[in-house]
């Protein structure tokens, strides 16, 4: 009898299912994949931010190019001023108008400055002060917008700023073209002289050989 009971106990122990190792262990490949994916996304985000910062820095330096940089800055701000006036005339809030008008900039550095100004407006700060601290916007633009912001006539001042900057652009364009015209004449004269010399020199050499 003892032998039978011992045999029954052994068979009972064998029949009890052992916990599956696969069920208790975590899905290692899945966890590793998630970690790798998160690292890839994080690195891609860092790379994107770094590239954006590089673009902003490059566009900032581009505005410092003599003559060309100032002309581009003036035209960009004129377009921004006219867009702001049109959007605000439709009853749009200042922060929304800044956000929408910032999109007209081709220069990423100027775009980032206006986005920062929009954030200052949302936080209740004086956005004119932050624009003035950049030392990139023309003084006349800062003075007009500051006056309009304090007096509540921003739309009127944006129109004035746009009109003034448009006249300045036309003046600079006229000066540039008046300086460019003599340079083009000199260049064309030099080019024609090279063609004439290229034709005459071989003829003169042939005459020298025939006479010699």
What report would you give on this structure?
The chain has 212 residues and is mostly helical. It has a domain at 59-174: Receptor-associated Protein (Up-down Bundle), CATH 1.20.81. 83% of the residues lie in helices and 0% in strands. The chain has helices spanning 2-15, 21-24, 28-62, 68-89, 94-101, 108-122, 127-133, 139-151, 154-211. The radius of gyration is 37 Å and the shape is elongated. The chain starts with a helix and ends with a helix. Mean pLDDT is 79; it is low at 12-22.
Short description:
This protein has 212 residues and is mostly helical.
Task: Give me some keywords for this one.
mainly alpha, Receptor-associated Protein, 83% helix
- In DSSP terms (H or I, runs of 4 or more residues), the helix count works out at 9
* Helical/strand content category: mainly alpha
**What is the percent of helical residues?**
over 70%
Spell out the CATH superfamily of the domain at 59-174: Type II secretion system (T2SS), domain F
Strand element count = 0
Rg to the nearest angstrom? 37 Å
Mean pLDDT over the full residue set: 79
CATH class of the domain at 59-174: Mainly Alpha
Question: Which architecture of the domain at 59-174 does the CATH hierarchy give at level 2?
Answer: Up-down Bundle
Order of helices and strands: HHHHHHHHH
Percent strand: under 5%
How many strands, what sense, and barrel or not for the largest sheet?
none
Low-confidence stretches: 12-22
Shape: elongated
At the fold tier of CATH, the topology name of the domain at 59-174 is: Receptor-associated Protein
User: Ends: how far apart?
Assistant: 142 Å
């Amino acid at each position: 009898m003892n032998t039978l009971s011992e045999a029954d106990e052994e068979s009972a122990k064998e029949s009890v299912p052992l916990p599956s190792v696969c069920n208790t262990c975590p899905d290692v490949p899945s966890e590793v994949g998630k970690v790798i994916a998160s690292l890839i996304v994080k690195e891609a985000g860092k790379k994107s931010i770094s590239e954006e910062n590089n673009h902003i820095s490059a566009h900032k330096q581009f505005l410092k190019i003599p003559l060309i940089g100032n002309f581009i800055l003036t035209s960009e701000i004129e377009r921004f001023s006219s867009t702001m006036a049109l959007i605000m005339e439709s009853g749009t809030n200042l922060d929304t108008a800044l956000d929408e008008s910032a999109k007209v900039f081709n220069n990423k550095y100027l775009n980032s400055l206006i986005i920062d100004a929009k954030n200052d407006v949302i936080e209740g700060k004086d956005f004119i002060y932050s624009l003035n601290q950049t030392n990139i916007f023309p003084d006349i633009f800062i003075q007009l917008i500051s006056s309009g912001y304090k007096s509540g006539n921003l739309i009127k001042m944006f129109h004035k700023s746009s009109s003034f900057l448009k006249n300045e652009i036309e003046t600079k364009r006229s000066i540039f073209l008046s300086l460019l015209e003599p340079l083009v004449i000199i260049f064309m004269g030099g080019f024609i002289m090279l063609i004439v010399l290229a034709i005459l020199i071989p003829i003169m050499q042939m005459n020298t050989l025939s006479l010699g």
